[in-house]
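Fold it.
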Amino acid sequence: MKNQETTCRKKLYKSGKLWVTAGMSLIIGLGMSVQQVSADTTHYVAVKKAKNTLQDAPVAATKKISNTDQNVSVSSNQTKGATDRVQDNTLTQPVSNDLSAQTAVPVSNDKKTIQDSNNSVANQNKNTDSNANTVQTKDSLAVNAPVKTPTDVLPTTGQSTTNSNNQPNTDTTNNQLANNQKDNDAVTKNDTSVSVKAPTEDHGSSTAPVKENNQSEIKKDSNQYHSKNIQTIDGKTYYIDDNGQAKKNFTTVVDGQVLYFDKETGLLSATNDYQFKQGLTSQNNSFTAHNAVENTTKDSFTEIDGYLTADSWYRPKDILVNGKDWTTSSDKDFRPLLMSWWPDKMTQVNYLNYMKTLGLSNSSVNFSANDDQSILNQASQDIQVKIEQKISQEGQTNWLQHDISDFVDSQSNWNINSEYQTTGNDKDHLQGGALRYVNSDKTPDANSDYRLLNRTPTNQKGYSSYSIDPTQGGYDFLLANDVDNSNPVVQAEQLNWMYYLLNFGSITNQDADANFDGIRVDAVDNVDADLLQIASDYMKAAYGVDKNDATANQHLSILEDWSDNDAAYVKDQGNNQLSMDNKLRLALKYSLTMPLTDQKGTAIRSGLEPLITNSLVDRTTDSTDNIAQPNYSFVRAHDSEVQTVIAEIIKEKIDANSDGLTPTIDQLEQAFKIYNADQLKANKEFTQFNIPSTYALLLTNKDTVPRVYYGDLYTDDGQYMANKSPYYDAINTLLQSRLKYVSGGQKMSMTYMMGDNSMATQGNRGLLTSVRYGKGAMTAEDKGTADTRAQGIAVIEGNNPELKLSATDQVILKMGAAHKNQAYRPAILTTKNGIVTYLTDADVDQALVKYTTDNGELVFNQADIQGVANPQVSGYLSVWVPVDASNTQDARTSSDNVKYAKDNQTFHSNAALDSQVIYEGFSNFQYFPTTESDYANVLIAKNTDLYKSWGITSFELPPQYRSSTEGSFLDSIIQNGYAFTDRYDLGFNTPTKYGTVDQLRDAIKSLHATGIKVMADWVPDQIYNLTGKQIVTAERVNNSGIYNENSVINKILYAAKTVGGGDYQKLYGGAFLDKIKSLYPSLFTTNQISTGVPMDPSEKIQEWSAKYFNGSNIQGRGAYYVLKDWATNSYFQVSSADKNNDFLPKQLTNQISNTGFASDDKGMTYFSTSGYQAKDTFIQDEKSNWYYFDKSGYMLYGLQTINNDNYYFLPNGIELQDAYLSDSKGNVYYFNKQGKQTVNNYFMDSNKNWRYFDQNGVMARGLSTVKEHVQYFNQDGTQVKDQFITDADGKLRYFTLDSGDMLTSQFKKLADGSWAYFGVNGLAVKGQQTIKGQNLYFDDNYHQVKGHEQVDNQGIRHFYDADSGDMLSNRFEKLTDGSWAYFDATGQAVKGYQTIKGQQLYFDDDAHQIKGHETVNQQGQIHFYDADSGEMISNRFEKLADGSWAYFDATGQAVKGYQTINGQNLYFDDNYHQVKGRAVTDNQGIARYYDANSGAMVTDHFEKLSDNAWRYFGSDGTAKVSQPNV
């Protein structure tokens, strides 16, 4: 159970201080990020040779260095050069790894000893401690290494002690520390001879500024560097990148030298000066013996689990009464630890300045880190005197407790600033961050053998069992204290709690009628899936839900299971609960509730086709029972599409810096004003479109249990049930219509309209139709029973507000054989301004009634259907029901009337289950009640008849638990019941947001009285706001429990609030387990899937503690609140009755204590403020620079491997952090915020750009394969995401938004709104393609052709659907020139004469349908085609293209010669043109004249002929020779 111990090494001093990782701003790189907290932890470390992956990296000098400022050659064996050229096999492009980089001076290969003026290297090595660890380092580069001080005597200041070549006394504590550390790898000396240059040691100034143009390190002439990028401008040296910009915060290795260009100016800067002041200062003074602790046991301290914290007080030996007289302390005389000791210099400085603000300091100026340690110590004594004077005056220390507590809270090490809180879109956890508890010998009471994370339905066995959703299917760390649901003891307690809910009335009032009947399982994808097995096993054992449908349907259990894998899991387990149909929810969202376009005008509302098949049920033809997977469906919920919308409004309209999930009540009120107003708009900005249309499907669909959401009937805000929503009437009508009509089989289909000429080409032309046939009829052919004819329902929906049908468009609903020649009326009709609802036949105007045909078809045309845009409907909606149904008709099916399928499944999707309706009877955002009558439970009890009239069968009550009010997340702000401490408190003594426990019981009983079952919300994932503290070993993780490498919390001790649970947890926790075990013993012998062992009822959880949790949210207590010594990485402990394991600062035990940096013959050392020498640890100076001291206690330089991670230390010992390093080959490496080299991993910079570094640490560029994922990286290393990349050959690829993986075998929308398809090789396709059974076409620019025609290489014209892009067949479409074409079964545009759907049509050689003019066939015959329908006309006159008229007979042919039509004698010439206003002479020479207007043959009338002669035409119409007698 013991884990490798690790220790944090980063710390902060000031609240809100931004830290950087070098005193002279040595955060170097391409994109520096400055964080509010320092970063990371380190293990008790083993130091060894760094792997040869970094090119040109200077080595560490471990030999003795001359005390003069000159180059010294150190003898060693030179290792091979470019022998470790290793290419990361995960990258496709080659990576050069040149290990033969040049050094500043030649490397010596001989073995002779080079002596300096004092000692030889050989002697130095000989004198090294036998157990000292020297370091193997990278051997290819030079490094500037520190030198010994010019004098063997350490400088002193004030009361500093002077030490001559002797290490300060580290006493026996080091032996104790060894027991706490893992064995470190042996570290060997580096035998490489390198050129080193010594940093100068600053004895006179604590600032130790880096000297510009330091000639010992920086060359005067930039031309001396073999780099085109290093340039001298106005006598100053810069690194100019390829874009002509001076790089800042950048390090590169050139000619074997490390060159740093500073962050402010980009100037080349020196790195060979120590940045700290040297010299040891004594921590002992005249107060030390008095301030020493009385004894080292718990009695003398305030502590947590034996550990000291920043809030610890202790009993000193003596008290300075009145600030004057030392008096022996009593057991009541405790003082804050921070009055006489501080973990580091900066904390002491902050303490002094804080006390100055309280008037407890003699100083007139603020203190700083530049002040000598002795000055700070004296100032601390002066403040202690004043504190003691005030204690004597006040006679108590309450004021001091308050002041010290405020000081502690102000320090970043002891507040949330050191916990790496994430906010806004950067959140890696809903509450800003999570802590995972890990096992450690230091915290045995918090250890666990379980904590199996992310054991979701997908990953219950520890590996992925389902792949519909390729992720792990959820994550463990959701909110607050995350319950370890893999722990068998916890699993038993969860069963105990569920038993309590399901027997709530019996337990609390001996009233079984007030028991809950079923449960909703909250956050399924955030808990161990074993809980689903436990819950279902109990429901089977207690109720027998697996015995018959009637029992099962009385005890519905539903799951909040969002992953697409969950339904498959539930099915495999036996359909013991109802899985949510999330696919259908998404189809409803994107087909109906989304806006037509986004803000850029790109279409985002899809077609309606997904509503048929994108579901757990294919409703193309749904005519079976007990086949589909049982499920429930919804469109909105208390936390879905509501709080997300409110969050969006807050961020966009109220507070741009908010994450929307931690709003104030005022912000919520402002947001709901916008929200409610938006619902009343036709063009909505935030809220959902087409809510009535979604319910028209939800409440009429077969093979699902619809769940109706309170917030769709009533406003989400306001008092409970006080204000109806805009959609109330529509949903109320649909619910009541469901009761009377919804039954039988279902048929859903799409009908595509030609549309009139005013419609946009790209608009959705499809209408969705859904028909239910009525009880007893499963298909359109079934004649059904006596009940069938009065039942059944039809829905027509469109989602295009611009839809306009053409004169010939029809929508035909096949209501079925049982409904021939039957009257139907609307239940809902769309109008221009909204929706009209009709509850009864009497409400309907008879003009609206429609009749089915002899075939049982309802026919609709352009007079019936037109798209609209109003607040209710964006598109079209109508619902139709049979006339003459009884007002008391009930189309539902009783569970007793269905045949039980014995198939080892609990729930069955049949007519009985379909007859259920769940009501989610609350909103997250309903107001806090102001009177007793406002409580939800009171109003629920009063309105049960209303719920019954809606056909509600199960009422999902809000979570009744008393809410936490701590405000760290939305749930506790709005007190919705999901953020609770005591989960057994359902309103005892004082009401919850929903009412008292008595009102809850009354609500349940009232619902039961009307036949409605009641569902409890089972929330097993989290416990909020515990108050008891416990020391745990923790690491900062994301919501999946993965360590966040930007955090300093890495297996460190943390004071967590993990203890408690409330009075009713004490009363009921575990209280029923013995009874449950006696009633249902098999529950406790069943091995759970994730653990392989049964639940454990032996331990009763009456109080929560860390061992029952996976971890928690970050709690704001800070990374270093549990105090430790930085030099030894040991936590300060006190002795207990059974353990003598105390470890305290030396001065608290009145031992000699010195602090500071000091050098001796062997190198640079450091002693902490507690008097211990730094060994195997990182140390931070007062300028926030970090250093590393090896096992022997000496500072290291160059590239080092420490505990299997590579680090790089500059010649002055400063560690590179958040830094990029470029070698001479252009390879780029990165050292993260903890200084660790990033290897075989990704890194995200402050601009949220990702980079990848291969197994050699080399930054990836170009097209790369990373762990089997093909990705693309720009030349600066930034990963391409959500971008299209065209290569040199013009080939197009797309790299996804989330992972940056190359998209394969998927569609992607291009920037212009068109779509492309990327094949299995990731390349965008062109031309004709068959994809997933669809015939598609992509042009030469990779754009999918949609909504227009395309001519292929053979000149054949095809048309591709505007929505799906599928090649059309057997369908008309309007072409881009406005003409129409018809595409046959093969998808080809037809030509010539065609008979289509009984119409005779004609298409020209370009496949254009002829409309409104004539055609001439090969025989010279003329036909004419109607201007609207395009149908060949017959028995009709039409004006020809030349303006003349023709008549087309019954065959559609234009007639010639003499014709009698409609009683008129007419004449048509050989060109089929009707003769008008002239005479015609036939073959016998007889002339007749035809009227100029009507064309009728003139009789008994004079007419002027073309030769201006007048002729008389007789009664037979022939011209007469002589004028008749008048």
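The radius of gyration is 43 Å.
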